[in-house]
Specification:
Number of helices: 1
Strand order of the largest sheet: 2-1-4-6
Number of domains: 1
Strand content: 25-35%
Helix content: 10-25%
CATH superfamily: Cupredoxins -  blue copper proteins
Oligomer: single chain
CATH class: Mainly Beta
Largest sheet: 4 strands, mixed
Shape: globular
Order of helices and strands: HEEEEEEEE
CATH architecture: Sandwich
Structural class: alpha/beta
Number of strands: 8
CATH topology: Immunoglobulin-like
Length: about 130
């Protein structure tokens, strides 16, 4: 009986080691949002990698994949404000919603390709992430 338990235990540990080593994911990647910018602005990761953005600014931001809507110059005094872009804009692949100051958002990239992303609140903030 003990021999069976040892063999099963060793087999289980071996299987865990094989699956852990076979995982194509790289180590988690930490990104920062600070000074109204994503840092780094371009990054390459392997499929299955968890990427975490931490908001170090004093205002909320988003991580939204797709093409950012156009930004508009400031309006003349007394003019009606331009409507804010929708927080649900983008292509729908990644949409963090509002990331409040000091908070973070993580996403696991299980699809290869190049992902352009932006902040839906501040569409001039843009970056690119490539998954191999």
């Amino acid at each position: 009986m003990r021999l069976v338990i040892r063999v099963l235990g060793a087999s289980l540990l071996g299987a865990i080691a094989i699956f852990a080593c076979a995982s194509p994911a790289g180590p988690p990647k930490a990104m920062t949002i600070k000074g109204f910018a994503f840092t780094p602005a371009t990054i390459e990761v392997t499929k299955g990698t968890v990427v975490t953005w931490k908001n170090e600014d004093t205002v909320p931001h988003t991580v939204t994949t797709g093409i950012a809507p156009p930004t508009f110059p400031p309006l003349p005094s007394g003019a009606s404000p331009t409507p804010f872009p929708s927080l649900s804009s983008g292509d729908g692949k990644v949409n963090s919603g509002r990331i409040e100051p000091t908070q973070s958002f993580s996403f696991t990239f299980n699809e290869t390709g190049t992902f352009n992303y932006f902040c839906a609140v501040h569409p001039a903030m843009k970056a690119t992430l490539t998954v191999r």
